[in-house]
Amino acid sequence: MRRAPLLLAALAACAPNPAAPVKVMAVVPASSGAYGPREVDLTTVDSITALRGKVATLLGGAKIVLDPADPLLAQNGGNPTEEQYIAILLKDQGGSVRANYVSKKNDKDQPVLWPADFHSWNMVTLYFNFEQAFSYFQQVFDGRSTAELENPKVLYWATFLDRSSGTEVEVKDNALFFSPVKSFLVVPFDQLQKVPLAMNTGVIGHEYAHLVFSKKVFSGAAIPAPIASWSLEPFNVLKSIDEGFSDFHGWGLTCAALGPGCRPAFLSESLGEVEGAKRDISLPTKCMTAELRNAINTLQQPQFLSGNQYQLGTLFAASMYQAAQKTGKVQVMQRALVASYDDDAPATPGFKQIINLNLQTQANFTLERAANTVVAHVTDPDLKRVLCNEFSDRLQLDCVAFPCDTMPDCPATSSKGTSCPVLPPENP
Ligand SMILES: [Zn+2]
């Protein structure tokens, strides 16, 4: 079994371990966009050496094996409980990490901890990004409790073996929220040569937004019922909005976080310009295509999840981005989006309520229904109207004139935008 080298290295040094707030150096983008060392305060750490605190607990040496032939899956008559399922996947749940620091004085003669090796830099920056993501969502939650977001596990430099294709593949170059084990994962590099994903503020904002969606929409379930049982358009739309909403919040975090400000192409910092542009939600050319529409309607789960979920997600995010920018109401949009995740008011049900109500009637969960659910939670009339224009244009919804039966929360003053080419009818 592989253990992350940082676990072995640290026994010798007796690192300083002061209580929060702790001044520490992390890797942060400067106004030029270039990432470099910068002094920050970590305000939530219980242990700066174990990188454990309210916003995240890092654990090293974890091992996950996804294996459809795992004999343990026969437990409980072939239908393992959630607890059993997590234990089956998580072959090693990992243990405390240990970051190493050298204490130096800053120009105000205050002690500042300098990470002493690559993993210490990477882990402390990752923790800082979790603090920034938590703080962003506190703003977006607008006074509602964020308690359910606290104390998530981050399996750092985890070994992740995927045997689901029949041959074993070690997953590399990724940082993800992996709901089947209810944890974030940061896996080792292979190809990536640019900014490590753990240091990329927008990427951590995106992953953190998956945690929020999981908690609010799926009550934190390892395998949510619609993900297990839905197919075609309802499944494809559900997976796509999770990605698109996460990109919208990832962008939101780049605006709020320490650094040069809003970066809709934040993925390019780690994955290169081509990948960054694919999911750049600010590009006015983000529009439904005939190919994507066909994929939504005809592809089963694994085929659709070959990248179509990001493409469709980007159209949702681009619509919200354009509407928020055109009206100058970015925070109103961010708050309305999160409010739409879980709302038990009968007149404006949230995604959680609509999904639970339609577990056996998945055909009711359409592109229009998803877009309307967000619209229903926008209280600002101007933003609501413009958001309807953008959704109907960029997603090529069946609403071409308002009022519209399938987008009942759009006002009659809405009118389909004109940024995108009109596609031919689906069934000519
Ligand atoms: Zn994602």
Question: Tally of extended strands?
Answer: 15
Strand content: 5-15%
What's the helix count? Answer: 16
* Backbone structural class: alpha+beta
Low-confidence stretches: 1-14
Rg, Cα atoms, Å: 22 Å
The averaged pLDDT comes out at 94
- The helicity comes to 40-55%
Largest sheet: 7 strands, mixed
Q: Which cofactor or ligand species appear? A: zinc ion
Can you offer a commentary on this structure?
With 428 residues, the protein is of the alpha+beta class. The chain has a domain of 206 residues. Helices cover 40% and strands 15% of the residues. The strands form four sheets. Strands 3, 4, 5, 8, 11, 14 and 15 form a seven-stranded mixed beta sheet that branches. Strands 7-6-12-13 form a four-stranded mixed beta sheet. A hairpin with a 5-residue loop joins strand 9 and strand 10. The N and C termini lie far apart (57 Å). The N terminus is likely disordered. The site of zinc ion has 4 residues, from helix 5 and helix 7.
Tell me briefly what this model is.
The protein has helices at residues 5-9, 75-78, 82-89, 118-141, 201-218, 225-229, 232-256, 268-271, 273-278, 290-298, 301-304, 308-327, 330-339, 351-357, 367-376, 381-394; strands at 22-29, 35-42, 45-47, 52-53, 56-60, 63-66, 90-92, 95-96, 101-105, 111-115, 153-156, 159-162, 169-170, 175-178, 183-186.
Q: What's the topology here?
A:
Blueprint: H1 5-9, E1 22-29, E2 35-42, E3 45-47, E4 52-53, E5 56-60, E6 63-66, H2 75-78, H3 82-89, E7 90-92, E8 95-96, E9 101-105, E10 111-115, H4 118-141, E11 153-156, E12 159-162, E13 169-170, E14 175-178, E15 183-186, H5 201-218, H6 225-229, H7 232-256, H8 268-271, H9 273-278, H10 290-298, H11 301-304, H12 308-327, H13 330-339, H14 351-357, H15 367-376, H16 381-394
Parallel strand pairs: 5-11, 6-12, 11-15
Antiparallel strand pairs: 1-2, 3-4, 4-5, 5-8, 6-7, 9-10, 12-13, 14-15
Helix pairs in contact: 4-5, 5-7, 7-12, 12-13, 12-16, 15-16
Zinc ion binds next to helix 5 and helix 7.
